[in-house]
Amino acid sequence: MLYSPDLVAELDILTRYRMGSTQEGIKVHKDADPAIIAAVMRLHEKGLVTQGDGGYLTDMGHEAAEHAQALFAILSST
User: Fold this and answer.
1) From CA 3, how far away is CA 9, in angstroms rounded?
2) Distance CA 32, CA 16 (A)
3) What is the pLDDT of residue 20?
4) Strand 26-27 versus strand 54-57 pairing type
5) Closest CA to 14 of 5, 1, 25, 2
6) In which domain, by residue range, is 14 found?
7) What angle do CA 61, 66, 67 make, to 5 degrees?
8) Cβ atoms within 10 A of the Cβ of 47, count?
9) Is the per-residue pLDDT at 22 higher than 80?
10) Total count of domains within the chain
11) Which long-range contacts (CB under 8 A, 24 or more apart) does 69-78 make?
12) CB atoms < 10 A from the CB of 11, how many?
């Protein structure tokens, strides 16, 4: 299985969320990198975030972000 650039961008967005609080979201501004804007829009379409410009994680998004961040931690350890 190959990771597409779109999938990597979505995983990157998921790792930006703080897992300690459900009251803390992210906001992607209109002048952000177009790849980031598109990744957040795809996450919204998939039901992982509440807004097309970021917002908060949904329940499914929270679970996905936990897995993404755990995988990042495992692969980043030395």
Assistant:
1) 10
2) 15
3) 83
4) antiparallel
5) 25
6) 5-76
7) 100
8) 12
9) no
10) 1
11) 69/14, 69/15, 69/19, 72/11, 72/15
12) 19
pLDDT mean over 30-38:
95
User: How many Å is the Cα radius of gyration of the chain?
Assistant: 12
The string of pLDDT tens digits covering residues 39-52 is 999 999 999 999 99
Residue in the block written with tokens 């350890």:
77
- Residue tagged 């829009």 (tokens): 41
Task: Answer for the pair 57, 22: CB distance below 8 angstroms, yes or no.
Answer: yes
Percent of the chain past pLDDT 70, that is, above it, reads: 99
What mean pLDDT do residues 49-69 have?
95
- Tell me the whole-structure pTM to 2 decimals: 0.90
The neighbour count for residue 53, using CB atoms within 10 Å, is: 17
